[in-house]
Write a structure and sequence with these properties.
0% strand; elongated; mainly alpha; 261 residues
Length: 261
Amino acid sequence: MLIREASILFWGVVAMLAAVAFAMAGQALVARLVPMHIRVADNTALGTIYAALYVLYALSLAFCLFFVGGLYRQAEITTNTEADTVADLYHLAEKFPEPQRHQMQDLSRSYARVVAEEEWPLLGQGRASRGSPHAQALADELVQTVEDFEPTTSTQQTRYGQALTLVHTLDDNRELRLLDSHQGLPAMLWIVLLVGGVLTISFTFFFGVEGSWLHRAAITALTVLVVLIIYTVYRVEYPFTGHIQVKPTEFEAALNSMKGE
């Protein structure tokens, strides 16, 4: 994991340096081919067009950040709900007769452990993320155990209804969590981000600025900012992947509460 993180960080730095090199080369080429007096004369017209361009691109960046932030928050809520549900199911099983009590508690405990220890690494693979077959088998067996219970009293009927609700909530949130693990930014939005970034930076080459060092510094600052935002979107795109990820903390807490019994 650390090696993968270092590799991603390294290529992020390489991408930023490459973008700055592209920007400096583009500015130098335009400065060589288009005389200063022509660029200065067109600054007002170019500024009007550029204002619309960077506002539209800024809105695109903001939307993408909001989108991946929403995915992350949704994954966090889904994970917490799933972990809380399996813990509630474990404690509700205390009120069931044997052998259902033992079966439900053993399956709940095993499910929380397998998700936290075995399934989480499988979720951290971006678009290739997947669930653990072992965890899925435990979830299915837990659902089947609850559904097969036949209550004989009104009290058992009430507890059976509660357990049925919890186990279906667990199953639903598991499906949502697995979906969240590999549902990243749509390809069309990535095209907008990358093409829009190139256009926004390239347009600055045509402005006429008397101090060439000031022009280059402004272009460099803009390029670094655009690359940093795109890199941030990339790192947060998949909520269970990378250093910025939803962690199995709630499942570990649920498992500890079960062990405390």
